[in-house]
Design brief:
This protein is an alpha+beta fold. Helices cover 33% and strands 19% of the residues. The protein has four helices and six strands, in the order ααβααβββββ. The longest helix is centred in the middle third of the chain and has 13 residues.
Length: 135
């Protein structure tokens, strides 16, 4: 990803491009594959990859600004953990209870034949299939 694209993501999220925020954005968006993470796991990855310390509050605020701007999706796992996903397209997930890993399922791999009607005054925004795995 170009440096200009990183700055654009930060600015469209309402964030000034500080050194830490640029590093966070590069780590999240300058990659080939989808990345699923919690704020805490991201902090560990960043500390390992770079040579400086990141404040958890900076990571939290940056991630939530990216989510609010539509650059990340949030995936709630049983009300216990919130994962963030760099894949913002409509898709589904496997969740491995033992490894705490979230794995993408392409939307075309799931066929839904019938869904209930939305309650009066409501519309269905999207449908997400969440499949829990175990050994």
């Amino acid at each position: 990803m170009k440096k200009l694209d990183i700055f654009k993501k930060l600015r469209t999220s309402g964030l000034r491009p500080t050194k830490q925020r640029v590093e966070i954005a590069k780590f999240l968006f300058d990659r080939e594959k989808t990345f699923h993470f919690t704020v805490e796991s991201l902090e560990k990855h960043l500390t390992k990859k770079t040579n400086f310390k990141f404040a958890l509050a900076t990571i939290y605020n940056t991630v939530h600004a990216f989510k609010k701007a539509g650059h990340l999706n949030a995936v709630d796992v049983r009300g216990k953990k919130t994962y963030f996903d760099t894949n913002i397209t409509n898709h589904h997930h496997f969740y491995d209870d033992e490894t705490s890993e979230l794995i993408d399922i392409d939307a075309s791999e799931v066929v839904i034949q019938k869904i209930p009607r939305a309650p009066n005054g409501k519309k269905i925004k999207n449908i997400e299939v969440f499949i829990n795995l175990k050994n």
